[in-house]
């Protein structure tokens, strides 16, 4: 349960102000089909984060001992720093728009997540918790919690949220994870 809850919290916070939120806003502005876009995001995230969690589980079987814990702690610190850097806006290209809301949203969201901080976080969370399903479902729920409100109340939310505060809180969560791992090495 801890893996699921922490994965949800970490990704939901990390996603606030992320490029995928901006992409969600652009998709709904382009297609005006919020439920279709939500379904596409859900499927794209489940596939992307499921594969990431599997990769993290595979890595956890390769890595062991204090060096693995130290490497993971450093990864969480790097993630904290990365989260503090704002993302740039992306546009919905015309080559994708012709595919319709479902396919365009799925493809664009899936591609936007490749190498994104939440994908890397999913790998690291899977290494830490060794719980593929819980991490996948948690990070997917976190992604949905961050993106669905943007789809339905996007512009209003974007004008009122302070992304810097959310980025700092998310960075703090990842720093705490790194510190807890380093403490576990000492104790």
Describe the fold and architecture.
This protein is mainly alpha-helical. The chain has one domain (2-64, 86-164). It contains 9 helices and no strands. It has helices at residues 2-15, 19-31, 34-62, 65-83, 94-97, 101-113, 117-129, 132-160, 163-186. Helix 2 (19-31) packs antiparallel against helix 6 (101-113) and helix 4 runs antiparallel to helix 9. It is globular. It starts with a helix and ends with a helix. The model has no long low-confidence stretch (mean pLDDT 83).
Strand content: under 5%
Estimate percent helicity. over 70%
Order of helices and strands: HHHHHHHHH
Largest sheet: none
Radius of gyration from CA coordinates? 17 Å
SS class: mainly alpha
Compute the separation of the termini in Å.
24 Å
Number of helices: 9
Q: What low-confidence regions span 5 or more consecutive residues with pLDDT below 50? A: none
Give the domain tally.
Answer: 1
Approximate shape: globular
Mean pLDDT across the residues is 83
């Amino acid at each position: 349960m801890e893996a699921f809850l922490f994965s949800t919290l970490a990704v939901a916070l990390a996603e606030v102000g992320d490029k995928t939120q901006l992409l969600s806003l652009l998709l709904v502005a382009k297609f005006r089909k919020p439920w279709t876009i939500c379904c596409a995001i859900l499927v794209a995230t489940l596939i992307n984060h499921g594969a990431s969690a599997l990769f993290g589980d595979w890595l956890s079987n390769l890595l062991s001992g204090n060096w693995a814990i130290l490497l993971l702690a450093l990864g969480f610190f790097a993630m904290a720093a990365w989260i503090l850097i704002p993302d740039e806006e992306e546009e919905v290209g015309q080559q994708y728009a012709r595919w319709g809301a479902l396919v365009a949203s799925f493809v664009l969201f899936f591609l936007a997540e490749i190498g994104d901080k939440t994908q890397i976080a999913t790998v690291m969370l899977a290494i830490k918790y060794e719980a593929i399903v819980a991490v996948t479902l948690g990070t997917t729920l976190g992604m949905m919690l961050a993106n669905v409100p943007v789809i339905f109340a996007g512009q209003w939310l974007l004008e009122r949220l302070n992304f810097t505060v959310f980025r700092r809180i998310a960075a703090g969560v990842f720093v705490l994870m790194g510190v807890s791992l380093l403490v576990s090495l000492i104790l």
